[in-house]
Amino acid sequence: MEITTINGVPVLRHSGTQSHTDVTLTFAVGSRDETLRTIGVAHALEHLVMHAVRDVPIEMNAEVDLMTTTFVASGSAARVGEFLNRLCRVLADPPVERLTLEAGVLAAEEGSVAHPVTALLMFVRYGATGPGLAWLEGPGYDGLTPEHVTSFARRWFVASNAVLQVSGPLPEDLELGLPAGLAADRVLRPGRTFDGPAVVGFGIPAAGVLLTLPPDDDVRLSTLAIGVLRQRVEEQCRHVGGHSYDVDADLLAGPGGSSDWVVYADARDGSEKAVSTAIVEALIDLAGNGPTATELGYAVARAEERIAADEPELRRAFTNLLGEMFGEPELKPVELDRLAAVQPADIAAVLKAALPTAIGYADEDALDPWQQAGFTRQSICPVVAELPSGRTFRPSLAARAFLKEARAMTWVRTDDALVLRDEDGVHAVRWDEIAGVLRGDDDSPTIVFGLNGCSIPVDTDMFRGAGDLLAELGDRVPADLWFDETKLGPADHQR
Predict the structure, then answer these.
(1) Cα gap 419→153, rounded to integer Å
(2) Which residue of 99, 287, 308, 487 sits 20 to 30 Å from the alpha carbon of 152, by its own alpha carbon?
(3) Phi/psi of residue 274, nearest 5 degrees
């Protein structure tokens, strides 16, 4: 299909004869493109620009997720055109003078870019970088600076990183005055992998699993396999067991086409083990035997219905435009005959191949079903085999006498890293892989965050020599990576 552009922005026109205009302006940038120091900057920018256009008298909204930032509006063509033109001008020059006030609004919203299970599993896989940042709070909205916002806008909110979809009349005099130029290169840290399926525990009343699947083909087999797994989990957790309400799947596309999928289900109080059992049993059974004929028939029929009810070529064009920005391969058209011929063994093969990549999640008291199924218990952040040699720091005698956890702690400073042994194992943060440092105060220690997801407290009250380490951190870590704890309240799930 032919794709037109306005000021460098691809424009996809939906068919139909409606008299009003609906638009969706999507940018290929989301929370995974932030850093620990700038967590929330995409959401802050979205709030600032939406505040600036709030007086346009039409329906409008915006959203930031892991991968994209989206603005939507609906109304007369003239008003929608006004909205888009003003929106793009404000994105090019964000009203950062409102940032301090808007920080309070953002904190009050208590929004999140991903479900807590998805956020945790992405953190386990990617650490304190990319999609793993959804698990952390960082400096909070009150820790962002105007420069953070304007730099993020200049880096990502350019014409070449946007796609506009339009239903109804195209607004006249549409300018879309976004800055020209290319978006910055996206460099994603390689994900953490394990020697076979793994499981982690935490206190979220839910269960879930992350699977890395290959690129979709001309029957969308990976998407179909996840759909079948989600369908089985929903049937068992909600309709049969009555344990869950929220059962869903999230997708994180990666370069080269491979995707991290998360299927999760929440658990009412007392049902955590039942939900864990349902998810791991569904995954193991589907990987071994495939879906039943009824399950597969339903999944295929849903896919066919979606194709018939939508404009598949337009949707594929949108996916491919974004995919090119993400570094993904081109998505081919769906072959309906091949889709109808998919067999249970095809679904089983996809899930069986993905099993070694699986990272399960369960409540701390509901890990048994996973371990009995061959999943190995892992720590949320990486641990190394043994404590390296180097300058050693031990908690003070008083700390060891009054704090049980201090008795297992040893800090080691090496030429390459800062290392902590605690009751969970040995954690290391390389000096050249520090994601950020949370300043301590009279009541809390300084905390060093590594890109790998490990965090190491440096507590002058707990162990001798901490002052030397703090001085070294001050010399080694750039000033723009230091931050203070937010005064707007911590996220409930933050470690």
Answers:
(1) 36
(2) 487
(3) -65, -40
Largest CA distance in the chain: 78
Spatial separation of the C-alpha atoms in residues 37 and 456, rounded to whole Å: 17
Q: How far apart are CA 190 and CA 433, in angstroms?
A: 14
312/297 Cα distance (integer angstroms)? 21
Strand partners, 211: 261
- Segment holding 417, helix H or strand E: strand 417-422
Residue 396 has a pLDDT of 64
- What distance in Å separates the CA atoms of residue 135 and residue 128, rounded to the nearest whole number? 8
411: nearest Cα among 466, 475, 461: 466
Residue carrying the six token digits 């939406």: 50
Q: Which DSSP category does 377 fall into?
A: E
Close Cβ partners of 301 (under 8 Å, ≥ 6 residues apart): none
Amino acid at 243: H
Domains of the chain: 4-115+128-167 (3.30.830.10), 198-377 (3.30.830.10), 391-483 (2.30.29)
**Unique residue bearing structure tokens 């965090």:** 455
Strands 206-213 and 359-363 come out as: antiparallel
Q: Which of 245, 368, 416, 310 is nearest to 16 (CA)?
A: 310
Structure tokens at 335: 């072959």
The structure tokens listed for 270 are 């007392």
| pLDDT band (50, 70, 90) for residue 493 | very low
Q: What is the Cα–Cα distance from 93 to 237, expressed in whole angstroms?
A: 48
What does the pLDDT look like over 262-281, one tens digit per residue?
999 999 999 999 999 999 99
| Residue 188: burial class (beta carbons within 10 Å; 0-12, 13-18, 19+) | middle
pLDDT at 156 over 90: yes
Handedness of CA 365, 370, 371, 376 (dihedral sign): negative
**Closest to 66 measured CA to CA, from 121, 148, 108, 107:** 121
User: What one-letter code names the amino acid at 478?
Assistant: P
Side-chain-facing half-sphere of 92: CA atoms under 13 Å: 15
